[in-house]
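hey m, so remember when u said the tokens were messed up on ur end? i reran from scratch. heres the input so u can diff it against urs
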Amino acid sequence: MTSSSSPLRARRLLAGLLCCAPLVTLLPQAAQAQGAYPDKPVKFLTNFPAGGPLDMLGRALAIPLQAELKQPFVVDNRPGAGGNIGADAVAKGAADGYTVLLSIDTTFTINPHVYSSMPFAAKDLKPLMIFSSSGLAFGVNPSVNAKTLPEFIAESKKQAASFASAGNGSPGHIAAEIFADSTGSKIMHVPYKGNAPAVTALLAGEVQAGILATPGLLPHIQAGKVRPLAVTGRTRSPLLPEVPTVGELGLKGMEFEVLYLAMVPAATPQPVVDKLRDALQKALATPEVKQRLASLDMVALG
């Protein structure tokens, strides 16, 4: 897959679409809902497994949100089909503000080009915000002989290398395909049901490599259990300053970031949307959340 493909063009349009989402016509009771909301716990439904970046981010945000809105925020993980299963559950759920989807951008920009049919339409969901981003880390199991990315490319041109990803259409899948296309390497894609199980597979040696969300790989790189070859950001990670960027290694086409976003069912009353959005912005501004994002190599965008 090349950088000129329609899925990647779609990713670049996502931020604009989120900022310009149309307002839903307000019902008479919407103003009343604003005053009462929330009067019970709110669910963060993440469409990837526990232990992954979305799960960690949801749990970090839940603490200041509970303090702000005086109700618990609980995380419910619904992985599968590149995020489609969880997104569909929210799209078809009650439009009352009590279920909020935490997702990554590829569920909406890449999946329609990978899956033969989608269980929901983009219009079924209303954006709250893009609240953070992170790069990917290109890591290999220590059993791999290559110590650098050029060495790995040379080896994978001779014999196919197995790559873990968080599922078909996930950032790791797309990045691995771009890597193969850009370098002439041979790869064998092995999809898992999320970033956390993909990282586990890499640690166990079930696969040789993975280009996976940095927050999930970072502690294992720091512990010496995964060998980093490159990062996909435009600049080096402050937490991995010795690891080169793909651009430094002549592979600017592999520069890639993951966008983390929040959405609710499209018919959710605008006063509820506004209250959630305001609370999320306040949560992102707290020192505790800023510190947690920095420790995960994430950048706050909200």
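this time it looks ok to me. The mean pLDDT is 90. if urs says something different then somethings off w ur setup not the seq
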